[in-house]
Amino acid sequence: KDMSLANEWEGFHKVTEIFKEYDSGIETKNDRFVLAYSREALERVVDDLCGMAIDDVKKKYGLTDGVWTVQAARDALAGFDKRHVQTVQYRPFDFRWTFLHDKAGFLARPRRKVSQYFDADGRNNVGLCFTRTAGGDGYKNVFASDRPIDAHITSGQDYLAPLWIYKDGKREANFTDGFAVFLASLPFAPAPEDVFAYIYSVLHSPAYRAKYAEFLKSSFPAVPVTRNEDVFTRYAELGHQLIDLHLLRHVPPDGLNISMDGVSGDFELKKIERKGDALLLTTDEGSIITITGISDEVWNFEIGSHRPIERWLKYRIRDGAVLSPGQDLTHIGRIVAAVSGTIEVMNDLGDLEELWRR
After folding, report:
1. Residues 314, 279: contact at Cβ < 8 Å?
2. Distances (CA, A) of 356 to 38, 124, 233, 236, 252
3. For the chain, percent of residues with pLDDT exceeding 70
4. Angle (deg, nearest 10), helices 229-246 and 327-352
5. Is 257 helix (H, G, I), strand (E, B) or coil?
6. What is the 3-class SS of 142-158, one letter each residue?
7. Average pLDDT over residues 127-148
């Protein structure tokens, strides 16, 4: 191991010293029951859980008690309020519906310390998803979310640090006192949104990931912060682009060509195949949906331990999810465009090399 940069690394700002409040993502202990692909599907689960006998619920859904129990899940729904039904980010670009409030039971660990700061529609906040350790093939364990996250959104154990925290109807930047003092010492005054974008940009820098690979394997990421305003701005601008892509905001056209031979309505997926730049999706009725224009680079791109497009599809095959030709195929296109855009922005970051050192 090359630890010659230890002193330099220790001089950076660890993300756990930047953000005042952060916590692990939610843990369900029963993903397939308490996370649903639609609000309607979740409400059907809730109705069954509240209205059926425990044994009947177990039989219908194939449930067994363990760390998570059907009775505890039912008890947690006492006083059920639909305001607590909201989306969470299960994996990159993969959203699920659940019932999220303070009481554990339906979800084993709802992590309300942090999840309380995100609304049901992902409008009022953005958070940094990160892990303490990276995989053996390099650091990829960072993402952005505008809603609560699953604890394994990128890999083994993910944390979520919101940009904003809300108290008494007011919001404030979620920075520690020490980091706020450091920001005040800079020769310019960046807005909190730009600080977040700068951090996000540096953590996606190929030069940063390569240079500090050994440290990223075993510790929380640490961020070098430039004192040069022009350099800061360049990184922040690219960071904002990445955040917009990862939150699926302002996603560019995907350039895909989709052929749906024999598919006229909703369908389930049974198999996926790759042939060149074409993705072949076999439906439950034996029809083939052909999507062309997905390069190997985009298909194989990883966020944490996941290849987002493939993972999104495989979960829906596993769970027998009913998909819509309009909404779901459009979403696949948006994932493709977001991943393609991410690769382009990371190439731009590569051109900056180690500009953060200024």
Report:
1. no
2. 43, 29, 11, 11, 28
3. 98
4. 160
5. strand
6. EEEECCCEECCCCCCCE
7. 90
Residue 229 has pLDDT above 90, yes or no: yes
- 197 neighbors 239 (Cβ within 8 angstroms): yes
Residue 1 confidence (pLDDT): 62
Query: Dihedral of the CA atoms 162, 168, 171, 172 (nearest 10)?
Result: -80
Helix axes 54-61, 39-51, angle to 10 degrees: 140
10 Å CB burial of residue 281 (0-12, 13-18, 19+) is: buried
Give residue 102's pLDDT.
Answer: 85
Please tell me the distance from the alpha carbon of residue 194 to that of residue 165, in angstroms, as a whole number: 16
Q: What is the pTM of this model?
A: 0.95
Q: What is the pLDDT of residue 201?
A: 98
Exposure string of 1-30, with b = 16+ CB inside 10 Å and e = fewer, is eeeeeeeebeebbebbbbbbebbbbbbbbb
3 state SS of 87: strand
Residue 122 pLDDT exceeds 70: no
Whether 161 contacts 127, CB under 8 Å: yes
Instruction: Map tokens 């305001």 to a residue.
Output: 83
294-303: average pLDDT: 96
What is the pLDDT of the chain when averaged over all its residues? 93
Q: Which two tokens stand for residue 261?
A: 């031979």
Question: Closest Cα to residue 65, out of 29, 31, 101?
Answer: 29
Cβ proximity of 170 and 151 under 8 Å:
no
Estimate the crossing angle of helix 229-246 against helix 192-203, to 10 degrees: 80
Q: Write out the DSSP string of 37-67.
A: SSHHHHHHHHHHHHHS-HHHHHHHHT---SS
Cα(304)–Cα(142) distance, rounded to whole angstroms?
Answer: 7
CA distances from 96 to 141, 147, 176, 233 (A): 20, 11, 31, 35
| Model pLDDT, residue 101 | 85
pLDDT of 184 strictly over 80? yes
